[in-house]
Amino acid sequence: GAVVSQHPSRVICKSGTSVKIECRSLDFQATTMFWYRQFPKQSLMLMATSNEGSKATYEQGVEKDKFLINHASLTLSTLTVTSAHPEDSSFYICSAFRDRGEKLFFGSGTQLSVL
Amino acid sequence: GENVEQHPSTLSVQEGDSAVIKCTYSDSASNYFPWYKQELGKGPQLIIDIRSNVGEKKDQRIAVTLNKTAKHFSLHITETQPEDSAVYFCAAMIQGAQKLVFGQGTRLTINP
What we know:
The structure holds two protein chains of two kinds.
Chain A: E1 4-7, E2 10-13, E3 19-25, E4 32-38, E5 44-51, E6 57-58, E7 67-73, E8 76-81, E9 90-98, E10 103-106, E11 110-114
Parallel strand pairs in A: 2-11
Antiparallel strand pairs in A: 1-3, 3-8, 4-5, 4-9, 5-6, 7-8, 9-10, 9-11
Chain B: E1 4-7, E2 10-14, E3 19-25, E4 32-38, E5 45-51, E6 56-59, E7 62-67, E8 72-77, E9 86-92, E10 101-102, E11 106-111
Parallel strand pairs in B: 2-11
Antiparallel strand pairs in B: 1-3, 3-8, 4-5, 4-9, 6-7, 7-8, 9-10, 9-11
């Protein structure tokens, strides 16, 4: 399968700081990437769709000023959690859509803990 | 919009036995159905998928069946092994839409 790299895998930060998470498609170009949030023992909740060269599309209830998404190239999307608070603590996962075969591949996830 | 229901939420089987996880979807326009395996602390891994133009697909110990009329699809794992223990998610997608709708997940435990 295709490889999607996500960094960092784990981050601990103080309340009020911003955290950036990177998602890279290593062996294919992805015009579309997705960002999910997952709470313990729950399914994946889609936060936003990231389109290369254009603004991200956010799901209802997701604050776009809180979760900044940038998709500046065909292989990189970033999610920045701004002014993080303890309630933002969660497992964040990215995915990239590979046009060939029309399949979706996931990164390894980032566990964010805000103190 | 599309809604995917997955059952059971937890499943425990003896090593060597078979495991079956079932999903139903609501939108008849959905035509792509992947299954993902998620281990603790990791991202989901695509293990098998099926498109609406076929009824069954097999890859070694894993198989997926699709019934378009009933709008349900199932994951079958045979000769289960301890390393099969994980959470499994089904999903559905309308071709061209690129956005997957996930089921609630099934926590599979293989007992030695």
